[in-house]
Amino acid sequence: MRKWLWFVLLFTCVSQAAPYNRNQARPVNQVVFGQLETVRYITQQQVVNSEHNGWQTLLGAVVGGLIGNQFGGGHGREVATTVGALAGAGVAYQNQHIGQSIRQYKLVELLIKTDDGKLVDVIQDIDPNMLFQSGDNVRILYFDEGVRVDRTYP
Question: Residue 121 and residue 4: Cα distance in Å, rounded?
């Protein structure tokens, strides 16, 4: 249970942290050294909705109403217009997934045994210039806005 608490806490910190640029100086609050126990590369997908979904439904209702208005006469025309507007809105609403895109995040989960014997689990973005393997010596950098793990070299 304690491991999952660390997992949730650190994932929240990392997911909200600004991107880490290795050529940018930042104040570090704490540095902890350790060794990687396990490394797991993961992918997280997020569905991003289009900002124009409401307009698509409204446009579908208007077009459906215009088409429905072409049929019938008198009271029948009003009913046909209403049915056309509802049908157009329904079709547009059902097809809103076309306005969605999938954003894919490539992450790495690192379980680290620190030099003082504690286990720390960190999830961070994959840096193609720093790939990890079990047994690597690492340092955990704690910043105001999150945490980052880097490999250390002997």
Answer: 9
**E strands present in 27-130:** 30-48, 101-114, 119-125
| Torsion 96-48-44-11 (CA) sign | negative
Determine the residue type at 45.
Q
pLDDT, tens digit (0-9, with 9 covering 90-100), for 61-108: 788 778 877 877 777 777 778 887 888 777 777 776 555 566 777 889
Q: Cα 24 from chain centroid?
A: 25
Q: Which residue reads 């072409």 in tokens?
A: 70
Residue carrying the six token digits 């680290």: 112
Q: What percent of the chain has pLDDT over 70?
A: 70
Query: What's the predicted TM-score (pTM) here?
Result: 0.50
- How far apart are the C-alpha atoms of 30 and 86, rounded to whole Å? 60
The answer to whether 13 and 146 have CB atoms below 8 angstroms apart is: yes
